[in-house]
C-alpha cells in the first residue's frame, strides 16, 4: 500500500520523460529508517511511465555487502537473459566474467571486471530500450557494484537511463566516497514525508483489520509521528499483544513514546519462550543469508524444534520463510542482547562456521564483529580471507579483515609486521599514501636489514615515489645498512638494487636522484642487467629520470627502454613492473613504435585479472602512445576511458598516471577532457608534480576563455616549478612553447621568441624530432613572414622523420594558413582525415570551399563556455547556477544560446560539438 506519495511519483515520472529524450538523471530517496523509501521504490517499478523502460531492480543487504557485484548481477541478469548478442559488443565484453560468460562458473577466477565494460554494457542496453534502475539501500551496496553505480551516475546525463536509489540518512556506510559521489550526482533528492493522520489511520487499519476505528489510528499517528515503519511495528506489536484496536485503547497508544513502538516489538520478542529467543538471536548474528540448519545449531536446537519455532514466528509476522520479515524486526533483536552476549554469540558463530568448513570469508565476517583476541588461527583465517577478497576485487574488505587481524598479533613482534605488510599491499589498491605509511610501521618492527628490505620492496618504485619524508628516511637508512650494491652478491645485491631503485625514484626531483643518472647508467653494464630483474628495475628508473630531465640523449634512452621492455612480459602485473616508467620514456624519446602492441597484450591480461587500477594505468599509457603516433581519436578515447577508470585518482593509481594523463589532455587540446580533469580536482593537490600539472591545465583553460594575462602568469609559474624539479622534456612538457604563444597574443614578441628559442635548444639537446619540430613551428608562427614560412618548412621536414603525426599536422596547417595555397590545405586535409583530427579537417574543408562552418551563430562567450563545460562534466542546471552564483534561468539562457551557436538540440550532443569547434590551444 502506497500512501501520500503523489509528489514523489510525479517528479520521477518527469525524469522518465526526460530520459526518453536522452537526458538521464539520478533520483535519491533519502530519510531515516522507516520513512517509506522502500515502499515508494517498489511502487515506482509499477508506475505507468515505466512501461517504456526496462526496469532493473536490486536490494542491497548489510550481510551481502562483501559479495562482489551482487547488486550489479541483481540488476542486469534478468534483462540480459533475453538481450540480443550485440549488447556485448565493444568494451561491454569486458564485463563478461561477472555473468559467467567465460564458462568457468566462478566469479573469483575473473576477479573484478572492468567498470568501463559494465558502463558500456548499460549503454548498449539503453540504446535498445531505456533503463529504469532501482537500487534499495545504497549504503549497503557492495564496493564493486557501488563503483559501477558511481561511474553510471557520472555519465548518466547523456544516457537514456534513470537511476533511483534509496539511502538511510546517518548510516556511516552512506559516507563512503563512491556512495557520496552517487548522491552528489542527484538531480532530484526526495525525502518522503511522514504520513498524515488520515494516511496513518489507513495504514493501521490495513494491518489490524476493519475493527480498527479512526480514533485508534489517529492515536497511532500521534505516537509515531507518521513514520510508516514505526506505525507498522506498533500495529504488529499491538496485534501480538491481543488488545483490540478500539477507541477505548487509544489513550494507551498515546502513552507510548515513539521509541516505545520498537520497544513493544522487543517486548513481544522478549516474551517468547527461551528457545525462540535463542533462535532469533542466532538468526540475527548469522545474517539473512545463513542456512537454517546452521542457525539451529548455533541456537542449540534440534531440527523439529527449529521448524516449529519458525512456523510460529511466521504466524506472528516476524519471519518470512527462513528469515526476518522486515529489517526492523532483525534490528529489534539487537535490543534483546547485551554487548557481552552479542560478542559471545559471534565468537560461537566463528568457531561453528570454522569447524563446519564454511568459506573463509564467512568466518572472517563474524570475526569482524568481535573484539576478543582469538590467537594465531584467527590471524591466518583473516589473512586467507583477505587474499580471497583481493582475488574477487574487494580491497576494502581485505583491508578490514587485515586490520581486525592486528588484534590477534603481538604489539611489536614480527607477526604483527607480517600482517602490516599484507595490509600495505591491500591498501595500495585504495590509498597509496596509506599503504606507504603502513609499510613504514611494518619495517620498524622487523629485526634485520634483509627483512626490512624485503618488506620495503613490496611496493613498486612508482608507488614509493609519493612517500612522506619519514618513510624516505627509513628507506635511506635500510639502503645504507646494505651498502653499495657493487660490494654485495646474491640476494643481498638484488635487495640493495631494488632499494636503490625506489630511493632514486623518490629523489627524482632532487640533485642526488638526477645528477648521477648518466654515471649510474654507465656503471650498470648491459650484461649485468640482462639477467637481473633487480638491476633492470633500477635501470628502468634511471631511464625514466633521464627522459624527464633530458640528462641522456633521446636515442640512448630509446635503445635502453626498448631492450628493457622486451624483457618485461606483457602478461605480468603491470602495476608491479617497471613498464609504466619505460612507456613514458619511449614516448618522450619519440620512439613509441614497439609499445603499442605490448600495451594491447598488457591490457588484455589486466582485463582477465580484473584489475581496474592496472587498466587505468595502461589506458593512460595507450593514450600517450596514440597521441605520439597521430591516432587522435584513439588517444581521446583511451584518455577518456582512463579517466573513467580512475587515472586521475592518484590516491589509488599513483601520481605518474595522472601526470601523463594531464600531458596528453594538454597536447590534444580537448576542451571536454581538460574540463573533466579540472572538475575532478576537488582541492589543490599536495603533491608538487600534480599541483604543477593541474596548474598547466588551468592555464590552458584560461587561454580557451581568452584570459591571456591570467594564462601567462599560470604557465610561467608552473614552468618555473618544472624547472626546479629538473623536468625539462620538451615532448612531455612543452610549456615554453605554450607560454610563447600566449605572450605573442599579449604583444610581448621578444619574450615569446626568447621562450621558443630556449625550448628549441633544449629540444635539440634531447634530440627527439617531435620536440625539435614543435619548437621550429612555434618560432615560425611568432616571427611570421618569409622567415616564419621558412621555419615552418623546416619544422615539416623534421617532423616527417617523427612518429608524432599530430604535430606534423599542426605544422602543415600553419604552412597552409601562411600561404593560403590550395595544395597546402589539401595536404593538411589528407593527414587530418587520416589521423582523425576532425577540427583541423573541418578547417581545411572550409578553406578549400567544401563546406560551411558548423558554428553558424558566432563564437561562444566566456560565460557560455563556462556553463557548457560544466554541463558536459555532468552538472545539473541548479548545480551550475550555484557554482557560478547566477540564477537557473541564466544557466538555461546560456545553454540555449550555446545550442543555437553549435547547431545542437540537446545536452547529450554538446560534448561532441565542443570537440568539433575546439578551443584556443596555446600550442
TrEMBL record:
<dbReference type="InterPro" id="IPR027417">
    <property type="entry name" value="P-loop_NTPase"/>
</dbReference>
<dbReference type="InterPro" id="IPR041664">
    <property type="entry name" value="AAA_16"/>
</dbReference>
<keyword id="KW-0067">ATP-binding</keyword>
<keyword id="KW-0547">Nucleotide-binding</keyword>
<dbReference type="Pfam" id="PF13191">
    <property type="entry name" value="AAA_16"/>
</dbReference>
<dbReference type="InterPro" id="IPR036388">
    <property type="entry name" value="WH-like_DNA-bd_sf"/>
</dbReference>
<dbReference type="InterPro" id="IPR016032">
    <property type="entry name" value="Sig_transdc_resp-reg_C-effctor"/>
</dbReference>
<protein>
    <submittedName>
        <fullName>LuxR C-terminal-related transcriptional regulator</fullName>
    </submittedName>
</protein>
<dbReference type="Pfam" id="PF00196">
    <property type="entry name" value="GerE"/>
</dbReference>
<feature type="domain" description="HTH luxR-type">
    <location>
        <begin position="853"/>
        <end position="918"/>
    </location>
</feature>
<dbReference type="InterPro" id="IPR000792">
    <property type="entry name" value="Tscrpt_reg_LuxR_C"/>
</dbReference>
Amino acid at each position: 500500500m502506497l500512501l501520500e506519495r503523489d509528489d514523489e511519483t510525479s517528479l520521477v515520472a518527469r525524469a522518465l520523460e526526460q530520459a526518453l529524450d536522452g537526458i538521464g538523471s539520478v533520483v535519491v530517496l533519502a530519510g531515516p529508517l522507516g520513512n517509506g523509501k522502500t515502499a515508494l521504490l517498489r511502487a515506482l517499478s509499477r508506475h505507468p511511465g515505466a512501461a517504456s523502460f526496462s526496469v532493473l531492480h536490486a536490494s542491497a543487504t548489510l550481510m551481502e555487502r562483501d559479495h562482489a557485484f551482487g547488486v550489479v548481477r541483481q540488476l542486469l541478469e534478468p534483462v540480459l537473459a533475453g538481450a540480443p548478442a550485440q549488447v556485448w559488443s565493444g568494451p561491454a565484453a569486458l564485463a563478461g566474467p561477472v555473468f559467467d560468460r567465460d564458462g568457468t562458473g566462478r566469479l573469483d577466477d575473473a576477479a573484478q571486471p572492468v567498470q568501463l565494460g559494465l558502463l558500456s554494457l548499460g549503454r548498449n542496453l539503453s540504446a535498445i530500450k531505456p533503463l529504469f534502475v532501482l537500487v534499495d539501500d545504497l549504503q549497503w551496496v557492495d564496493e564493486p557494484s557501488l563503483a559501477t553505480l558511481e561511474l553510471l551516475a557520472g555519465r548518466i546525463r547523456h544516457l537514456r537511463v534513470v537511476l533511483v536509489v534509496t539511502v538511510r540518512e546517518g548510516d556511516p556506510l552512506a559516507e563512503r566516497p563512491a556512495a557520496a559521489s552517487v548522491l552528489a550526482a542527484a538531480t532530484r533528492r526526495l525525502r518522503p514525508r511522514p504520513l498524515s493522520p488520515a494516511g496513518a489511520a489507513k495504514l493501521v487499519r490495513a494491518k489490524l483489520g476493519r475493527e480498527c476505528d479512526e480514533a485508534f489510528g489517529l492515536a497511532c499517528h500521534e505516537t509515531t509521528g507518521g513514520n510508516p515503519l514505526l506505525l507498522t511495528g506498533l500495529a504488529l506489536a499491538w496485534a501480538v499483544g491481543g488488545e483490540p484496536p478500539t477507541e477505548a485503547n487509544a489513550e494507551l497508544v498515546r502513552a507510548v513514546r515513539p521509541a516505545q513502538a520498537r520497544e513493544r516489538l522487543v517486548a513481544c520478542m522478549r516474551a517468547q519462550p527461551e528457545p525462540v529467543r535463542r533462535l532469533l538471536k542466532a538468526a540475527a548474528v548469522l545474517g539473512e543469508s545463513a542456512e537454517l540448519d546452521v542457525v539451529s545449531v548455533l541456537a542449540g536446537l534440534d531440527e523439529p524444534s527449529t521448524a516449529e519455532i519458525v512456523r510460529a514466528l511466521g504466524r506472528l509476522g516476524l519471519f518470512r520463510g527462513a528469515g526476518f520479515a522486515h529489517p526492523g524486526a532483525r534490528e529489534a533483536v539487537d535490543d534483546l542482547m547485551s554487548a557481552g552476549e552479542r560478542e559471545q554469540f559471534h565468537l560461537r558463530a566463528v568457531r561453528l562456521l570454522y569447524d563446519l568448513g564454511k568459506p573463509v570469508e564467512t568466518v572472517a565476517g563474524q570475526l569482524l564483529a568481535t573484539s576478543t583476541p582469538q590467537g594465531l588461527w584467527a590471524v591466518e583465517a583473516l589473512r586467507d580471507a583477505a587474499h580471497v577478497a583481493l582475488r574477487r576485487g574487494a580491497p576494502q574488505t581485505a583491508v578490514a579483515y587485515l586490520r581486525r587481524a592486528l588484534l590477534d598479533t603481538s604489539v611489536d613482534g614480527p607477526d604483527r609486521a607480517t600482517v602490516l605488510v599484507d595490509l600495505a599491499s591491500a591498501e595500495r589498491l585504495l590509498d597509496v599514501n596509506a599503504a606507504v605509511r603502513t609499510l613504514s610501521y611494518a619495517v620498524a618492527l622487523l629485526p634485520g636489514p634483509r627483512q626490512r628490505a624485503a618488506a620495503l620492496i613490496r611496493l613498486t618504485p612508482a608507488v614509493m615515489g609519493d612517500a612522506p619524508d619519514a618513510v624516505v628516511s627509513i628507506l635511506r637508512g635500510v639502503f645504507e645498512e646494505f651498502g653499495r650494491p657493487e660490494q654485495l652478491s646474491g640476494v643481498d645485491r638484488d635487495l640493495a638494487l631494488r632499494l636503490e631503485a625506489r630511493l632514486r625514484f623518490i629523489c627524482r626531483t632532487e640533485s642526488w636522484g638526477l645528477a648521477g643518472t648518466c654515471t649510474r647508467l654507465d656503471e650498470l653494464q648491459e650484461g649485468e642487467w640482462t639477467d637481473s630483474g633487480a638491476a633492470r628495475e633500477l635501470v628502468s628508473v634511471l631511464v625514466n629520470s633521464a627522459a624527464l630531465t633530458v640528462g641522456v640523449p633521446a636515442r640512448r634512452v630509446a635503445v635502453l627502454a626498448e631492450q628493457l621492455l622486451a624483457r618485461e612480459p606483457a602478461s605480468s602485473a603491470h602495476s608491479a613492473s617497471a613498464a609504466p616508467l619505460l612507456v613514458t620514456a619511449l614516448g618522450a624519446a619519440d620512439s613509441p613504435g614497439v609499445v603499442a602492441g605490448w600495451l594491447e597484450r598488457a591490457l588484455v591480461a589486466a582485463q582477465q585479472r580484473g584489475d581496474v587500477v592496472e587498466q587505468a594505468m595502461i589506458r593512460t599509457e595507450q593514450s600517450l602512445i596514440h597521441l605520439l603516433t597521430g591516432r587522435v581519436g584513439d588517444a581521446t578515447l583511451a584518455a577518456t576511458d582512463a579517466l573513467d577508470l580512475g587515472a586521475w585518482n592518484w590516491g589509488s593509481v599513483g601520481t605518474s598516471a595522472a601526470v601523463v594523463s594531464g600531458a596528453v589532455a594538454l597536447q590534444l587540446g580537448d576542451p571536454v577532457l581538460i574540463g573533466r580533469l579540472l572538475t575532478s580536482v576537488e582541492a589543490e593537490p599536495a603533491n608538487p608534480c600534480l599541483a604543477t600539472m593541474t596548474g598547466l591545465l588551468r592555464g590552458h583553460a584560461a587561454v580557451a576563455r581568452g584570459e591571456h594575462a591570467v594564462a601567462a602568469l599560470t604557465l610561467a609559474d608552473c614552468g618555473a616549478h618544472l624547472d626546479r624539479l629538473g623536468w625539462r622534456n620538451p615532448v612531455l612538457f612543452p610549456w615554453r612553447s605554450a607560454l610563447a604563444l600566449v605572450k605573442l597574443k599579449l604583444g610581448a614578441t621578444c619574450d615569446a621568441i626568447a621562450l621558443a628559442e630556449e625550448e628549441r635548444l633544449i629540444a635539440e639537446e634531447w634530440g627527439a624530432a617531435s620536440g625539435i619540430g614543435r619548437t621550429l613551428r612555434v618560432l615560425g608562427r611568432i616571427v611570421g613572414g618569409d622567415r616564419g614560412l621558412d621555419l615552418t618548412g623546416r619544422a615539416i621536414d623534421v617532423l616527417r622523420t617523427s612518429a608524432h603525426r599530430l604535430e606534423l599536422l599542426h605544422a602543415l596547417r600553419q604552412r597552409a594558413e601562411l600561404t593560403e595555397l590550395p595544395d597546402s590545405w589539401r595536404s593538411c586535409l589528407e593527414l587530418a582525415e587520416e589521423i582523425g583530427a576532425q577540427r583541423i579537417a573541418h578547417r581545411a574543408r572550409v578553406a578549400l570551399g567544401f563546406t560551411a562552418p558548423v558554428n553558424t551563430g558566432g563564437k561562444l562567450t566566456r560565460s557560455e563556455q563556462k556553463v557548457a563545460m560544466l554541463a558536459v562534466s555532468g552538472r545539473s542546471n541548479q548545480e551550475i547556477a550555484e557554482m557560478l552564483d547566477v540564477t537557473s534561468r541564466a544557466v538555461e539562457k546560456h545553454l540555449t544560446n550555446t545550442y543555437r551557436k553549435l547547431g545542437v538540440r540537446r545536452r547529450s550532443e554538446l560534448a561532441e560539438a565542443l570537440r568539433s569547434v575546439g578551443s584556443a590551444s596555446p600550442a
